[in-house]
Amino acid sequence: MCGTCGCGSDEKATVIDLKNEAPSHHSHEHVHADGTRHSHPHDHDHAHSHDHSHDHGHDHGHSHSHGHAHLHHNHDHGAGRHHTHEHIEADGDTVSLEARILAKNDAEAASNRAWFAERGILALNLVSSPGAGKTTLLERTIRDLKDKVPLSVIEGDQATTNDGMRIRAAGAPAVQVNTGVGCHLEADMVARGVQQLDPGQNSVVMIENVGNLVCPAMFDLGEHAKVAILSVTEGDDKPLKYPHMFRAADLVLINKIDLLPHVEFSVAEAVRHTLEVNPRANAMTLSARTGEGMDDWYAWINTRRLANNRDTIANVSAPAP
Amino acid sequence: MHELGITQNIVAIVGDAAKGRRVRRVTLEVGALSGVMADAIAFCFDVVAQGTALDGAELDIRIIEGRARCHACGTEFVSPTLLTRCGCASRDVEIVQGEELNIKTMELEEAA
Questions:
Q1: Closest Cα partner for A242 from A142, A128, A321?
Q2: What is the mean pLDDT of chain A?
Q3: Quick check: helix, strand or coil at residue A122?
Q4: Cβ of A117: how many Cβ atoms within 10 Å?
Q5: From the list B35, B62, B64, which residue is nearest A217 (CB)?
Q6: Given A105, A218, A276, which is nearest B91 (Cβ)?
């Protein structure tokens, strides 16, 4: 399976020519004698994207079973190119849908959010690349906080219950969601996980997303905040490389700082890059292994928890927005 | 990989709305800053549509340009990426266009 979009491609890698302005995943560009450029997702029976609209014959050596996709860009490309795509109004009905593609997930997420709010639960969505230390961070957090804060975990992974078992061993209730081929958690998975977990009033639910800095950025789970974990064994420019995720995160935890003497990672640069993508983000440095810096993270959880806690809200006449 | 799930959503939403009629064409709006690759949706579409009311339908994807408004100076400007700064050098900007992920229209075949 393709590691970029999971579309079942057998291609092992996508080669991107960096000199090319618009590298396109899975595409094989063809230039025809008439100057028409075609970008084929594949050389057989698949959707077929044209970067420009033209009348053209498909006389090149590929078979297209049916179904073409046309991509239109609404900005000028210069060089006098204009992209209008006249559709012949055939004898069918055109129906306006105006539907948001993610409406179903967003509705499920809103329902999760309401469920959490009713119970004063703080739900955090932990996101990172694989191996950044999400599970280790949770293990330490559970061990340090379990006597003070009721905490439970929804563990997302493509396969295995290894992480769920680690969380249980650390002393917190956990459910494991295996997404199979899925590369991220969706709101309905969290709804099912929470039903099984049945977290208590005013508790904290940690949702450990599938290790992936791309897809989870788009899927609201109903959490109060996304927490991105960036380890110092990764590059300090990661926020720039994955801007969607770092833009979506309220808090960025720079983890494994005990390894700083051994790696070329600048905390200052990582923070600078985080703020470049997301000027409102909080950034903290810590080591889930040694415990250094964990108190800042716990203080952050506590502040957020009190803001969501039903008893606190009931006792404060004018809750903070 | 999320494009596969997104395409499944598209096919499900349109299939429901078509109420048993065959769909000839689907038009989408995909924002340049939405985090979704239009090419990947196009790639998945035929496969996902197989055996549904959308089998064989054409897919039109309109890319919506990214635009942002600067919190510092109020200017609205074209923002091709999430990292584009305002002309005043501020990076404290709000995306106002380009995150769309919508199904605009579907074209149905004549009812039999």
A1: A128
A2: 78
A3: strand
A4: 15
A5: B35
A6: A276
